[in-house]
User: Fold this.
Amino acid sequence: MSIFVQSLISGILIGGVYALIGIGLTIIFGVMRVINFAHGDLLMLGMYATYFLFTQFHIDPFVSIVITMPLMFLYGAFLQRFFINRVLDALPQNQILLTIGLGLIMSNTVMLAFTSDYKILSTRYSSSSVSLHGISISLPLLVSFAITTVITIALYWFLLKTDTGQAIRATAQDREAARLMGINVKRMSIIAFGLGSALAATAGALISPTYYIFPQVGSSFTLKAFVITVLGGMGSVIGATLGGILIGVAESIGGVYFGSGWKEVVVFVLFLLVLLFRPSGLLGKSRT
Amino acid sequence: MRAKSSLIIALVLTLPSFVFAANAKVKIGFVNSITGPEAPIGESLTNGVTLAIEDLKKQGIDVDLIKEDDTGKPEKSMAAFEKLATSDHVGGVVGPYPSKCAAALAKLAEKYHVPIIIPVASKDDITRQGLQWTFRLSATTNDYATILLDMATAFGKPKTIAIINENTDFGTSGAKSAKEYAAKKHLTVVAEEAYAPGSPDYRSTLASIKGKNPDLVFMVSYVADAILLMRQSREIGLTPKAFLGAGAGFATEAFAKEQDISNNVFSSTQWTQDVKWPGTKEFAARYKAQFGKEASYHASTAYESMVIMGQTLAKAKDNPARAKDLLDKGSWNGIMGVVKFADYAGYTNQNNHQMLVEQIQNGQRVTVYPPAYVSGKKAVYPFPGWTK
Amino acid sequence: MPSPSFIRRKWITSAGGKRVIPLLLLASGVALLALIPLSVQSTYALHIMILTFVSIIMGSAWNILGGYTGQYSVGHAAYFGVGAYTTMILLQFRHIAPWYGMWAGVGATIVTALIIGSICFRLRGPYFVLASIAVAEIFRVTALNLKDLTNGAEGILVTELPPLKFGDTVITDFTTKVPFFYTGLITALFVIFVTRGVQHSKLGYYFQAIREDQDAAHSLGINPALYKNIALVISAVFTSVAGSLYAVYVGFIDPGTVFSLDVSVQIVTIAIIGGIGTILGPVIGAIVLVTLSEALRSNALTNALIHAGLVNADSRVGVFLKENLSHAHILIYGILVVIVILFMPQGLLGFARRIVTRKRKG
Amino acid sequence: MLDVRKVNFAYGDLQVLWDVDLTVNEGEIVTLVGANGAGKSTTLRNISRLVRWSSGSILFQGEDLGLLQAHDVVGRGIVQVPEGRRIFPEMTVLENLRMGSYPSGVRKDREHNFERAFSLFPRLKERQKQLGGTLSGGEQQMLAIGRGLMANPRLLLLDEPSLGLSPLLVRSIFEIISEINRQGVTILLVEQNVYQSLRIAHRAYVLETGRVVLTGSGADLLVDDHVRKAFLGM
Amino acid sequence: MAILEIRHVSKFFGGLAANSDVSFEVEEGSIVGLIGPNGAGKTTLFNCITGYYAPSKGDVVFRGLRMNGLQPDKVCRLGMVRTWQKVRPLTNLSVLENVMVGALCRTNSLFEARRMAQEQLRVVRLDQKGALLAGALPIGERKKLEVARALATRPKLLLLDEVMGGLNPAESEELIQLILEIRKKGITQMVIEHDMKAIMRMSQNIVVLNSGEKLAEGAPEEIVSNPRVIEAYLGAEV
Assistant:
């Protein structure tokens, strides 16, 4: 029983970070209808930024988010402005290949700059934990979950209450109607990609104290982000939040009851089942 | 090409051979994972080779080194070897790192009659195929596990063992060896977990292992996951009598530096910085000075392989066939101890390398087993528990 | 309102129009290719050509499903891997020669493809893409975990190939690259001819009709589910053959080399860079990509510069190029992919055609 | 106020508008009538700059709209209520209305415009928390018009506002259109409901296959034989 | 004899009825006009008849066969084919190939299909343009192409969805002649059309839909003088 609770809790905590990754991807997909295969690489860039700030300027990883986030927002905006915007009307497989190419460029540039060594970012608290009734909870994971929660709430507020946030949602729901409202949809796309990048990078920053960093780290997160997004419903922010936590828990519990080796199968089978029986995702509205 | 090389052999045999002629020039191919997933370790190999080239130069051997990236993929490795053998006409090849690439190249070496020294790829099968042109310096995967269990049973009386390994070639075969050897040593395997590397969360796996309360926790993983596993073991309070790391990630500086979690962890290794083999200390110091980090056994095996290949080819006048004979018969004593490529126990041209066990004591990597190689500090056993 | 994309997609060939001269050229080209092993001594070159043939098979196979039928699978590693694994498992553990095992691989792939098809073809667009990725990943993880069958992550290493015999006559013992060269060449040509055959048949028209407009095709008496599955099976079978060929040639497979997303992406890249929906697109894509990535990997550029005497090997520039270009080859590759997508969205073949038409017009 | 001069437009190689000329004066209701595919919606889409004509010009208060982008046009006071309403289905009524006042110049009047929308369509006030996609067709049309009014339009382009509505609703929609016009908003209306639209229009244009074939006051066209023939085949 | 019977067909989307309780019959060899304001449910009814939707209630009976739930490809093979309101040419195939795809429904031989396609192209007078890409045709010719492609499947019943929409009067006239020619070949047709003039000239029977329900049915003269139809179509004079 305590193993179950232990797995459940660590699954939820790690799921929070997954949720951020998924939300970023879902915003990008929602607004642009482009599957971003470079999503994990954006996360990787966030990790390296955090690592760089930590080793060079001794800025705590959790604090450095305030620098990483806007920086990666600008980077994402740049990518959208000069690359993605050009293929918005192109064939889907060309869009996919473009983001794959961009991902290769990112990871290999980083490899040239930082070598392909694993970087470990060790803070005082990297391996500390709090214990509650025999259930141990990783302190950095707890902090990152708290930050994730704050960011997610802030994001909801942004999307629900501000004009720009609503305009992004409007663009996602009906691009042309949005133009008729005087919304500059190109700019919304740029903001959306910037936001997606910033969220992925933040997720990277948040796990860097407890994880490790290397140029190819992104690919497994890209796959994970796909699963999360489809699970929640492509384009649905709430769905991605739940999807992230669900995947975190499924991995964690699946690891205990099916063995670590099979837990990925559990995740992908879950993914396929959702695709088959609710292709619009758990919370997505079916679109025609 | 064959005709050409036999011509050279004829020439070599008829001429009086000047061994170690001043400024011998040799051409060596170095197949390595410069990019791709194996690149972090590839870098250690590159660094080791760089030092070897410097040392060979000091000995009057000019190495024309041709570096080839295999991106960690067998077919690219093959392409590299084909190029080295047929268009660059190298005298010998050192590398590659991943076992799957090494396995592919071993066959090519046989085909092209170009000797290859494999520094550290550890898959047992590579030197078990009776191949004459493939030489391996390092001990095999099997040995990573056996030395650790030998040590653990020598230090105490453990009864149970949990095996955690990453789901890779090295991890799986390491775990397999551990399981087989554990049976011989009358240890009960209470848990076997193979995980996919790269997951940020192993807590549930570790928690279920903790529930089984094993005496030994045996792990095979690369550095990143090694740190992660130990961090999370600490988090959930997994405290066996000993943490045994089968080389790779556990025998690295990066791991040792994480004192909170690395303290008192054992790791099997091909080489340590304080082992009493000739030149070890100097090599370690130079490496640190030049590359800003501690040398790993990957670097030292690559170094020694290159030195051996360089010297041999110089002697063989860059002639592959002659180099092969020299490798067969020769014996070296350098930073990897005595190296001799022998045929034994089903192996061909396999150096029967002595594995070591190091323990991390307050960030220092100390050789603690076998007793003959211990330089001073004693092993801490059993595991005294986590520092708060 | 007509779909604005039709202007952009004109380059996708449609069937029709036989020409004699290209056929003659083709025949002489094939003859030349067949003579290569007799004249070319460099096994390095043969190796690159064998890899090119495997890539042509992979790209052309994908093209039947992706290019002609419009189903953009990013999970073809599943078929590649099933072919490779079936062949290797039978060879290693059952001692069945690969030229028989390959057919078992084809059989296994057909079953696999039909199962995957029945699942994934219920989805369209991005959902189909993601489902295809998921399926391939399930295969990879399963291969990792079914240790008894697949030897898990340790992979399967084949040390010896049985000779190919006809009766008691040994046809080839596969000790050199030449038999692999011919096997690859013949298979690649076969795939190209099948593609051509498909394009000029009812099947091809039906595939293209589904690609162009599934609903319209449905109204004209075409059962999209049936024909999509047919396209998938053809495509998967050839991909499986490519997998078997690769496995036997390299002699080693593990889940990471044959089932990974990288393989799927590589397959798609070959077709798209060359130009999809055309017979020659994947061929050009394979030739360009294999040669290019090998040239980049082996740092041919630096060597050429040094060889030409433009850069001194020991000068700072020479050393810099030697050290860094070998690290940067995947980066350069990525940049080239991005450039092609942005500036030649129809692939190299489409781009070339456009230039030719423009010249003719101008 | 709005001056469309000799506008030609083609989708790809398919020409939809041929030398279309039309003007809208301040304070008018102008109706465009014509069969499906005659180019009525396309004319509106050109004015909104969703698409760009190939030759000719469109001037709004002397300014060349060809130099602007769609979102700038809204800022100038030209607002289109599109055919099929195009409500944002996963946003609430209130949010949909808010989106109407997205241009930075009109946000300050947001509260006032909410009031105007709610007083014209009290129904929307009741439903303000409801998601746009769950409204009935009539309510969606009200919301679409209300949303269009949020941007302080000087020229309102209405594309088939009565489409798919019950006769009762159709009547009230036209009443509201007149009411909006009385409040000082110029209106360019595209309608297939010929009687109703001609009845409230000051002037009207008849489009056929992308050409203006007839123009006149609403009352005149209402009794015009050609119009009756064109739309009833009598 | 009725070739097609629509019996109490209803189609709901969510709670919304796009068609409710529509019934009528199509006489073999006749042309039936289906009219009604936008959103009246004409295209939905076409979709229910041709297998794109299964009717929520009621039956579609074609030549005595109940068609509910049959997929469009089966429907086509049974001899009922439709065109699309928004033309759907297979843009990257040539004009001839487009029609061949239709003909391949009845033959496996490309040669035969090509012959049949050329024949149909002659019928719609596109035989000179067979080699062009379908995407390059102007709208009027695309409409004709669509008709030729449908005819190539050798239908008994042809359903034309706003085949004249967006055409100029000359082009419309050409299509009207074409439809009348097709009738002479014994092919029954059901036509959705807004151009009342055209409908009046072509149809023997007209069905009027409004808000998903059948508002009226009858000969053209009856329909045009029916006040309810005038109200629905031109808007009520209040």
Summary: The mean pLDDT of chain E is 88.
